[in-house]
Amino acid sequence: xxxxxxxxxxxxxxxxxxxxxxxxxxxxxxxxxxxxxxxxxxxxxxxxxxxxxxxxxxxxxxxxxxxxxxxxxxxxxxxxxxxxxxxxxxxxxxxxxxxxxxxxxxxxxxxxxxxxxxxxxxxxxxxxxxxxxxxxxxxxxxxxxxxxxxxxxxxxxxxxxxxxxxxxxxxxxxxxxxxxxxx
Length: 183
Description:
It is built from seven helices and two strands, in the order ααααββααα. It is mostly helical.
């Protein structure tokens, strides 16, 4: 019998195996890879890289519901670092797809907006994006879609905590290695 990769009972098969869990992880990795490929393919359709496309479309969508959209808002929305978003936004500004203005009340912040040229690119992409997204999620009914929308943010939060734990455990690795080697 192979060693278990999880210990929580809810993650184990009825027989006590973690095989179904491992299959789920592999399926999630495959789906995540497909979503990345789809995003990159949509981005190529309008001459952008995947990250730039995600940032552009996020600014456009968030502008509709937020009074001001800044780098921190986009970074939080996309689960990216502020520094990375700042670099990508700079490229979008250079391309004339996004404007960046100083926030009226807090001069340290900037307000981002999609330009008419940026909106035109997104409008050009919409028919392709719609068909591709419908196909990507065509296996879900309304109930499954609602459940997915509820579960995925929990998985993202768990992923953040797991990465922090792994980083902490990796930083302790030199001490464990030293103990094993007797130094």
